[in-house]
Amino acid sequence: MAEIDFLAGYQKTTTRDYVARVVSHDKAECAIVARQWGADYWDGDRRYGYGGYHYDGRWRPIAMAIAAHYRLKPGDRVLDVGCGKAFLLYELAQLVPGLSVAGLDISHYGLTHAREEMRPFLTRGHANHLPWPDHTFDFVLSINTFHNLEVFDLEPAVREVQRVGKGPAWICVESFRSEQEKVNLLYWQLTCMSFYSPQSWRFLYEKWHYAGDYGFIYFE
């Protein structure tokens, strides 16, 4: 396992007012709406999630870094667990012609509002049970998904990544390195269910025999 940060530039594009997130609206009500993973979460008011999640090319530099690091090539099979609207998968497919891509997400709305050319490759489902045979994919990734799982779903989800892959993997989750970052995470999050430090995440990955790489998103 190695810690790799592909999202440093992406994170800097977002400005967050942590206190306003808590006091401006009923945070509990917003979280209930967000965890329905529907239109409000993706394209509704910012209080419920993304506040409008549309293709704008911001995932292309990340896709370039991932494709280069893992030396993705035509014919490789790639799975994104928690793909949402599949913008990252779209960029990977454009960068590496001949790449075979697949995405899974729990959100019907997210999948049906993905780029049209990606929809045939997307499956609705839960990360704790991936509907593919063992060793199907050359590369498996997951961004901003596993921290949304309860611990009883988190372990099987991590083991599923290991099962369906036959090459490298990369899982990126929200985490905290200090009390300030922990507070910021708690203030900002709407859907997070697993709150762990990087040390705890590494402990769980090792305990569950995850051999892939990992990354963290911090709220500074």
Description:
It is a single chain. With 220 residues, the protein is α/β, with parallel strands linked by helices. The protein has one domain (8-217): Vaccinia Virus protein VP39 (Rossmann fold). The protein contains 10 helices and 6 strands. The protein has helices at residues 8-11, 18-23, 27-34, 39-43, 60-69, 87-95, 108-112, 151-164, 179-188, 198-207; strands at 77-81, 100-105, 122-124, 139-143, 169-174, 213-217. A 6-stranded parallel sheet has the order 3-2-1-4-5-6, sandwiched between helices. Helix 5 (60-69) crosses helix 6 (87-95).
Topology (elements, then pairings):
Blueprint: H1 8-11, H2 18-23, H3 27-34, H4 39-43, H5 60-69, E1 77-81, H6 87-95, E2 100-105, H7 108-112, E3 122-124, E4 139-143, H8 151-164, E5 169-174, H9 179-188, H10 198-207, E6 213-217
Parallel strand pairs: 1-2, 1-4, 2-3, 4-5, 5-6
Helix pairs in contact: 5-6
